[in-house]
């Protein structure tokens, strides 16, 4: 009796797996290079500390500091370049010495070829290294069942305006 249940469960699983694979199509690889326009100061800030610091200055290396972000993501380096997505999420300084943040970020496409799709990024970010890498752990729309990786490199930082431009190169496998 137990072996019949196991056989039935196996057949059911294989049927569902085969059917779902057929609907998804072939695995694709997409490489994207985008630019986060990050503003951590002024009334137009796209990054804020939670809760906000009492003196107004953000401290990205303080253990336990948590930040919420909604950065415009552009196709080019220039500040006025076309915005195709928003980088929305949280990051927390998670190393006692302040060298590491934990990133939970959604790339939400609002225009262009991928409008309505998302890419989910998650992982440990060694924030003081020149090039940092986090995992692509999911996605929606054109990036359904995404996996891969994304690198981040700060190309520009204007301390007076608290404006940084961060290049992200993503390699994404998806259906």
From TrEMBL:
UniProt record similarity statement: Belongs to the plant dirigent protein family.
Compartments where located: Secreted, Extracellular space, Apoplast
GO annotation terms (biological process): phenylpropanoid biosynthetic process
Protein name: Dirigent protein
Subunit structure and binding partners: Homodimer.
Keywords: Apoplast, Secreted, Signal
Domain of life of the source: Eukaryota
Pfam families: Dirigent
Role summary: Dirigent proteins impart stereoselectivity on the phenoxy radical-coupling reaction, yielding optically active lignans from two molecules of coniferyl alcohol in the biosynthesis of lignans, flavonolignans, and alkaloids and thus plays a central role in plant secondary metabolism.
Gene Ontology CC entries for this record: apoplast
